[in-house]
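[recover] target loaded
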């Protein structure tokens, strides 16, 4: 299993504009669970992930089937739009592009829509999801992904603010056109580039 490391070059800032480094501990984010007060109760034995939409091969995966897909690791920095970053996080899971290959996208496939067990949703263009570092992660820093951080499975897109890395995934709909997610409808940017300080939706 090849490990991809996404870091800035020596001499360049490790932190995007307006970000501060948070302590690197497994329990980071435990007080920032998402948009719900109560965590969704997800038993791995009952967890399912559906991949549908503009695909030739709809996928309905339980956790065992998910673990049977090609595995990958990626070391990257994690940037929350609220201004904190956690450096050198080791994620393990399935590359989005490998999952997409199994679903066989149609020529019309241009965007992915992500739905979560807590009702959260967001979208990304396909080209933003095909890198080696974009994972559907079920492990973090050598441990099973904790439920408060999105377990059993979350998306990790290191080149975007973390609201584009949704937790508690249950469905991925491949689409021909884009749609705005929970935060993007009224507050945060749909492009979410931390290196451009691209936090807020234009007025």
């Amino acid at each position: 299993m090849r490990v991809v490391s996404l870091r800035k070059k020596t001499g360049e800032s490790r932190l995007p504009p307006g970000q501060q480094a948070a302590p690197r501990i497994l329990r980071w984010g435990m007080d920032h669970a998402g948009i719900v007060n109560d965590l969704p109760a997800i038993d791995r034995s009952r967890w399912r992930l559906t991949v549908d939409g503009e695909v030739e091969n709809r996928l309905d995966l339980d956790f065992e089937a998910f673990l049977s897909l090609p595995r990958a690791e990626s070391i990257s920095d994690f940037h929350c739009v609220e201004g904190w970053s956690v450096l050198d996080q080791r994620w393990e899971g399935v590359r989005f592009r490998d999952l997409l290959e199994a679903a066989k996208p149609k020529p019309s496939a241009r965007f992915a829509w992500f739905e979560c067990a807590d009702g959260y949703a967001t979208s990304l263009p396909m080209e933003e999801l095909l890198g080696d570092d974009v994972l559907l992660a079920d492990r973090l820093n050598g441990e099973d992904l904790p439920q408060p951080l999105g377990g059993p499975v979350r998306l990790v897109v290191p080149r975007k603010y973390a609201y584009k890395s949704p937790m508690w995934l249950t469905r991925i709909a491949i689409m021909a056109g884009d749609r705005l997610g929970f935060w993007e409808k009224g507050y945060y940017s749909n492009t979410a580039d931390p290196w451009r300080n691209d936090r807020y939706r234009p007025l």
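[recover] notes: The mean pLDDT is 89.
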